[in-house]
Design goal:
With 166 residues, the chain is mainly beta. It is built from two helices and 13 strands, in the order E-E-E-E-E-E-E-H-H-E-E-E-E-E-E. The protein has helices spanning 89-92, 97-100; strands at 7-13, 17-22, 25-30, 40-44, 56-62, 67-73, 80-85, 104-110, 113-118, 124-126, 133-134, 136-138, 149-153.
Length: 166
């Protein structure tokens, strides 16, 4: 059975910002014609959430599906952060639950927007009101940080399809 192809989206915040990749870091930048929002490759995870209210489990990647978005704690830190790891989206979904947990986000409907909750930690993806700040995580919805996003379809994004089997 052939794996389902990922959907492609740009992620917009409610404060007229988009998520963009800047020197390997996801940042919230103004949605202007001279700024290009990052294309996110979104794949439904084969793992199912324990509770429907949590949302749909998804995997997110950027850079033509080559960098997987995950949540993990850096050495010496008590709180998780968003990280991009060199993991291909097509390879992530085949992993077992324990290895995959850091790469899963629950996309839940919040009115006409969506929240993105980390599967590994009780936190949500957020952006600051300030431009050019790194996207992060928070434990509180909608307080001082923007936690609701819109997913806008992208029609002409390519996914890296290099075959590793020689």
């Amino acid at each position: 059975m052939k794996a389902k192809a990922p959907e492609k989206f740009c992620i917009h915040g409610g404060d007229h910002k988009v998520l963009a990749l800047d020197s390997g870091t996801l940042k919230a930048v103004p949605n202007k014609s001279y700024r290009h929002p990052e294309t996110f490759f979104v794949l439904a995870s084969h793992l199912r959430s324990a509770c429907e209210e949590t949302g749909s489990p998804i995997l997110l990647a950027v850079s033509k599906g080559e960098l997987g978005l995950c949540s993990d704690k850096c050495r010496g830190q008590s709180r998780p952060s968003l990280q991009l790891k060199k993991k291909k989206l097509k390879d992530l979904d085949a992993q077992k639950e324990q290895a995959l947990q850091l790469f899963i986000f629950y996309r839940a409907k919040a009115g006409s927007w969506y929240t993105l909750e980390l599967a590994a930690y009780p936190r949500f993806i957020c952006t600051s009101s300030n431009s050019e700040e790194t996207a992060g995580v928070t434990d509180s919805l909608g307080k001082r940080k923007h936690t609701e996003f819109a997913f806008h379809w992208v029609y002409k994004a390519e996914m890296n399809s290099n075959d590793d089997s020689n």
